[in-house]
Design brief:
AMMECR1; AMME syndrome candidate gene 1 protein; six-stranded antiparallel β-sheet; Glycoprotein, Type 4 Pilin; AMMECR1_dom_sf; AMMECR1_domain
Length: about 190
């Protein structure tokens, strides 16, 4: 994992705004499950970020096409946020997470905060299978316990019913880790000058 992945996501976004093709990157094109996260800097503190989009894929994709695709999908199609606009570029920070070390959990609490991301499968009130995920850093950044994280993830995944012990025991949990890098727009511009 390197910052080059984030720089390529910025290249893809800038090329989109400028209406031109993006140049192929020099880094390896190995397949990985991946997520691209866009945030904006809050009050000039690059540690105080506001989420603007985060979408990825659990199916391994070649890095060149996967990063290009998800740089744009997370910028423009995360339904939780309005699409990113060109004037936001100077405030943006890009994070790329390459997902690794997938393991089935023995139950919904079989994971470690700050180490594992979690992907859960469950059935909603109508019996429809649903899934949801949080990347490894989410629970730690939010200051959540494991229980609070799972409860929040169920709501994120669309579950609106009562969360009982019996319901929690029926969750199928997969834990994973990620290799993550982050680059601000200022860092991006410095490498492209």
């Amino acid at each position: 994992m390197s910052k080059d992945h984030c720089l390529y996501c910025f290249d893809s976004l800038v090329a989109h705004f400028e209406g031109r093709p993006v140049h192929e990157p020099a880094f390896e094109n190995s397949p990985f499950p991946l997520f691209v996260t866009w945030s904006t800097v809050h009050r000039r503190d690059e540690e105080d970020l506001i989420l603007r989009g985060c979408i990825g894929n659990f199916s391994a994709m070649p890095l060149h096409s996967g990063l290009k695709e998800y740089a744009l999908v997370s910028a423009f199609k995360d339904g939780r946020f309005p699409p990113i606009v060109k004037k936001e570029l100077p405030t943006l920070v890009c994070g790329v997470s390459l997902l690794i070390e997938f393991e089935k959990g023995t139950d919904y609490l079989d994971w470690e905060i700050g180490i594992h991301g979690i992907w859960i499968e469950f059935k909603d009130n109508s019996g429809k299978k649903r899934t949801a995920t949080y990347l490894p850093e989410i629970a730690k950044e939010q200051g959540w316990t494991k229980q609070k994280t799972v409860d929040s993830l169920l709501r994120k995944g669309g579950y609106r019913g009562t969360i009982t012990d019996e319901f929690l025991q029926a969750i199928i949990l997969t834990r994973y880790q990620s290799q993550k890098a982050r680059v601000s727009y200022n860092e991006y511009i410095a490498t492209r000058s």
